[in-house]
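As the next step, I needed to go through one protein, both as residues and as discrete backbone shape codes, included below for the reader:
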Amino acid sequence: MQLREGGGAAQLVQFTMRGTARQSRVARFIRTIKEQLLWVRTFATVEELRLALLEWAYPYNEHWLLERHDFLSPSQARRELRLKQAA
């Protein structure tokens, strides 16, 4: 999953997966957001929450190594997938 900002609004982009695998990955992603952001901070406004989510999403996508991506970050895994599809 990837959080993007476009047109002044944050939008969650979901990649296609099927069934139980998708449900468990989405549940794990939501748990990670809760543990790393929502349970440790308080937000006065929805705008403050939106900005915090965008700030949180960048290091998650660029630097967190995930086992399911062979210990690549989500951004690295997407780049490699695009290269394989282009070949």
Remarks:
- The chain has three helices and two strands.
- Residues 2-86 form one domain.
- The chain has one domain: 2-86.
